[in-house]
What does this fold into?
Amino acid sequence: MADSIRDPPAENTDFQELEDGEDLLPESAAARESQPASLPAVDISTKTNGPKQDSLFDEDTEDLFAEATEEVSLDSPERDVLLSEGPSPAITPITPPISVITPRIGHAHDDMFTHSSFDEIEEEDGGDSFDIHISVSDPEKVGDGMNAYMAYKVTTKTSMSLFRQKDFSVKRRFSDFLGLHSKLASKYLHIGYIVPPAPEKSIVGMTKVKVGKEDQSSNEFVEKRRSALERYLMRTVKHPILLKDPDVLQFLESSELPRAVNTQALSSAGILRMVNKAADAVNKMTIKMNESDAWFEEKQQHFENLDAQLRKLHASVESLVCHRKELSVNTAQFAKSAAMLGNSEDHTALSRALSQLAEVEEKIDQLHQDQANADFYLFSELLGDYVRLITSVKGVFDQRMKTWQKWQDSQMLLQKKREAEAKLQFTNKPDKLQQTKDEIKELEGKVQQGERDFEQISKTIRKEVSRFEKERVKDFKMIIVKYLESLVQTQQQLIKYWEAFLPEAKAIS
Amino acid sequence: MMEEVKDASSFLSVQVHNIKVTEVLQDGDSLTFIIVSQKLSGTGEFHVDRTYEDFEWLQQHLFSQEDVPGIQGVIFPPLPARLQVNPSSKALKHLGFLGLGEWQPYCKALEAFLRQVAAHSVLSKNRAVEIFLTSSDPPGRQKVKKNIFNRLSQAVEEMRKEGHKDVDDFFQTKRDHNFLLTGYTKMASEKFLDVVLTEQKIAVACGHFSTALHLCVEQGENPEKQDFSQVCVKLSEVFNSIKKSMTSTAMNDMNSLGLGLDLETRYQEAEKEMLFRRTCKLVELQNATKNADKAKPVKKAVMEEAKKATETEFRQICEVAKKEIIQLESKHVETLKQALVQWCEKQLLTAKESAEVYSQHLQTFKRMQ
It folds into this structure.
C-alpha cells in the first residue's frame, strides 16, 4: 500500500477492495490501524458533523491517498464519521487486512499523509485548552487460575469537545494497554514522534496475582502497575497528536475493545518483533550518516548523557527506598522491645512513659512507610519512566537515520538506472529503454519523496525534542512539589507526636 | 608516681556533677582523654590527661578495697569497654552506641563513669579517685593486686550458683527482676542502635543522590535546558536538607536515648554482678554453717569462728546491697527520664527546623512554576 502513494496516478490492485466509497470508511479505519490517518481526521472545532461523504471521498477511490499530498481541510468530518457510525468502532479489527500490513514491514510510509497537516493540528489551538484527567483504579481479578487477569477501570474526566462525554469510564486489561502502545508506535515512531513507552510486563508479578497470592508483595505489584498505567495514559494524552488519534479515543471511550493478540509474550508476532529489533540493531551499526546538521549530533550526544545520568539517579533512589523500608522494619522492632521493657518496669510513671514511647515509635514506623512510598512512587517511578522514555527518543533518532538511508538508497538506485539508460541509448532495445526511462521517472519521484520525508522527520524531531524538554521540566517540578508537600506533612506529624510525648516523659518522677 | 594508695577518709577536692571529658587526643594507636574538673574551693580547674589504662587502674583500686565492710555489695559504676582506634567489627558491635560518632558518645560515657564514682559515698573515699582526677602525673600504671571479684563471665564454674535459691524474698525478687530487665534493656538498646545505623545510611544515600543531581546540570542557552538545570540544582539542595535532617535525627538518637539505654544496660549488668557476688557469699555461708554443724569437736571452734566471720561478711554485704539497690532504682528512673526528655526535646526541635526548611523549599518550587 505504501508504494501506491508514491505513484502519482495510482493504479493499485491493493485498492480494489476499497473502491466502494461506502465501504471506504470502515476499511479506512482498518487502514488507519497500520498507518497514520491518511487524512488528518481531527475535527477540533466544536461543531459535530454527521456522517458526511464530502469531496474527500468522492474522488477516485483508487487513489485514496492522492489528497495526502495536498492541504486538507481541518473541518474534515471524517473522525466524527468514524466514531458515530454504527455500533462502537469495535468493528475496527486489530489486525488489519494483510494487504495493508505486509508492505509495511521494512517500509516507512510516512508519505501516507502530509506531516504539514499534523503541524497545523498542533498549532491550531482550537476551542479546547488541554483539560483532561485520566485515572486508573479499582483493580479487579477476573477469572481463575492461569487464565485470570486484572481488569482496571479507566476513568476520563474532560471538558474537551474531542470526547463525547465529560466523565466516563471503561474497563481495560494490561494487554489492552500494550495493544494501544503497539498501534501508536507503529503509526508514529517512524515519522519522528516520541511515543511514550508502555509499562513493562512482569511474568513473575502477574503469576503471583493469577495464582491468587493475596500478600503484601502482590498487592504492591498491582498498585505499582496501576500507577504505571495511569502515568502512561496521561503521558500519551498530553501529546497533542496522540490525544487525537482514533485508537487512543477508542481506548478511552469504547466499552468493548477487541483483544490485542500480538502482545502475548511468546507469540509469533512477538518473535517477529524480536527479529526486527535485532535487524534494526545490526542496521544501526552499519548506517554511517553524513550528519550535516550539528543540532542532531549534539542532541544525540545529549540524550546519551541524559540516559546515563538518569540511570544513576534511579539507582540512587532505589537504594534510598530500600533503606527507608529497612528503617521502618527497625523502628517497628524497637517499638516492640520498648513495649516489653515498659511492661517489665516496676515504676508506674516510667512504665507508662515507655509504653507511650512504644506507641510513638509505631506511629513513626507508619510515617517511614509512607515516606518510602513517596520516595518510590514519586521519584523512583519518575526516573524509571524517563529512562524508558529516552529509549523512545533514541528510537526516533534512529528512524531519522533510516529515513536518510532510504533516501540515499533511492538516489544510488537512480544513479544506476541513469547509467543503465545511458548504455541502452546505444543499443537497439526500445522497449527496454522505455522501461528504464519509466523506472527512472519512478525513482526520481522516490528520491524527491525521500528527501521530503527526511526533512519532515527532522523537523518533527526538533519539535518533539523541544516538547519533551518542556514536559520534562513540568513533570519534575510537579513531582518535586508533591514530594516536598509529603516531607512537610511528615515533619508536622512528627512534631505532633513529640509534643504529645514530651509531657509523658516529663511526668516521670 | 604513687606507689601505694591509702584508704584515707579524704573527700574529693573537686565538684562532682560537672566533671568533663573534653577531648580525645590520638597518637597513632593510642588515645588520651582530657579530663577537666572544677575546684571545690575557690575558682580554678584541674586539667589531667588519662589513658584507658589509667581508668583501669582506678577501677582496680576500687575493686580491691578488701577492708571496706560489705564492699562486695556495692554496685560498681560500669566502665565502658576499651575503645580502639580502628575497631574490628566485633569490637564495634560490642561497643554499640559508644562506637558511633566521632568518639563523643564514648567521652560522655567516660564522663558518666567518673561522675558516678565521685558521687558514690563509699567509693569516693578512696584516694585513687582524688589522684585520678587531680594529679598532674599519670597515676601508677603498675598492676595492682589481683581483682578479688570474679567477673561473671570468667567464673564459668560458678555459673550454677547463679540460680541458687535465696533465703531472702527481697533479694530473690530483685534477682528475678534484674534478670528480666537486663535482657529487655539490652534488646531495646540493640534495636535502637539498628534504627540509628539505618538513619545514618539514609543520610548517606541522600547525599549521593544530591551529588548525582549536579551531574544533570546541562550547559546551554536554551531556556528549557536552563529550566531543567535549575530544577536539578534546587532538588539537590532539597536532598541536602533531607540529609542534614536525618543526620541530626541520628545524632539526637545517639546522644540522648542511645546513651541512656547503653548506660542502663551496663548498670543492670553491674547490678547482676553484685547480686551474684552476694549469692556466692550466701553459698559460702551455707557451706560454712553446714561444716560447723558437722564438725568434730576438735575442729568445731574453728569452724564456728569461720562461720561467724562469713555471717558477718554476708550481713554487711546485704546491708550495703540493699542500699545500693534502692539507690540504683531511683537513679535508673532518673537516668531514663532524663534520656527520654532530652531525646524528645531534641527531636522536637529538629522536626520543627526540618519542617521550616522543607516549607521554604516548597515555596521556592511553587514560585518556579
About this structure: Residues 1-117 of chain A have pLDDT under 50 and may be disordered. The two ends of chain A are 90 Å apart (CA to CA). Chain A touches chain B through 58 residues (CB under 8 Å). Residues 348-424 of chain A form the longest helix (77 residues).
